[in-house]
Amino acid sequence: MRQENWQRIRDQLSAEITGGQLPPGAQLPTETQLAQSFRAGRHSVRRAVAALAVEGKLRVEQGRGTFVQAAPLINYHIGRRTRFRQNLLEQGVAPAGDHIARDILPAPAHVAAALRLAEAAPVHRVLRRGLADGVPINLGFSWHCAERFPDLAARRAAGHSVTEIYRDYGIADYCRKTTTVFARRPDAQEAALLMQHPDQPVIVLQKTDVDAAGHPIGYSEAVWAGDRVQFTFDSLEGGEPAQEAPDV
Q1: Are the C-beta atoms of 1 and 9 separated by less than 8 Å?
Q2: Which terminal Cβ of the chain has fewer Cβ within 10 Å, N or C?
Q3: Nearest to 181 by CA among 117, 123, 119, 243
Q4: Burial class of residue 92, CB neighbours in 10 A (0-12, 13-18, 19+)
């Protein structure tokens, strides 16, 4: 079956990315130059680039151009005491992170239910972004009771880990009670922060942490770039200590 022009361009560019002729971070020629090179119309070039962006192989930056996506594939282990930083360092990948936003707001219904709070009770909401070798791989949204942890958001912004903050409030250890995993399309903000195409799916991990008495102390949602991570769930007998929210 004869390929259409855009499919031929897509496959050639994909092969050059896989073969290393177009290395991570490389900028592609302009749309006009690619059209001339492939002896095709600009519409075909645009469609091929869009398809590769959806696959996560290219990143289109308005006003700057099109770049080969330099995204390492992370094999992320979820198990006893594993942490974001530890996961990446063990794979030779440099972890880093950005503090994006923090505020106090009335607890949404699902957050209030997870934390066993009255609906609209004040909660901290913190948004952080995790990076691997400088490439965004996840967004961490976390919610905590503002009355129980009054300075949590400020300390998170200052770089303190959740584990460290819990310890200062007398919580020596905590466990992940539930974990829910599903895929969906990102919203506009998520796609922009993850620097990915809006049609590229994300993987969402929702979890609730509880203290030694079984009382919920934190709820979080980690939104991962779907083409940059794979998860391994380690099976353990008995209770399982908590998985830190994306934390660097």
Answers
A1: no
A2: N
A3: 243
A4: exposed
Q: 134 and 193 share a domain? A: yes
pLDDT tens sequence across 120-173: 999 999 999 999 888 899 999 999 999 999 999 999 999 898 889 999 999 998
- Describe the chain by its helix, strand, coil percentages, rounded to 5: 30, 35, 40
106, 217: one domain: yes
- Rg over CA atoms, the chain: 21
Tokens 């001339």 found at = 36
Q: How far apart are CA 153 and CA 26, in angstroms?
A: 38
Residue with tokens 């031929």: 8
Residue type, 6: W
How many angstroms separate the most distant Cα atoms in the chain?
68
Q: In this structure, how many other beta carbons lie within 10 angstroms of the beta carbon of residue 134?
A: 11
Has residue 248 been placed in a domain?
A: no
**What pLDDT digit, counting tens, does each position of 53-98 carry?**
888 788 888 889 999 986 667 888 886 555 788 888 988 889 998 9
Find the helix or strand (DSSP H, E) in which 230 lies.
strand 229-233
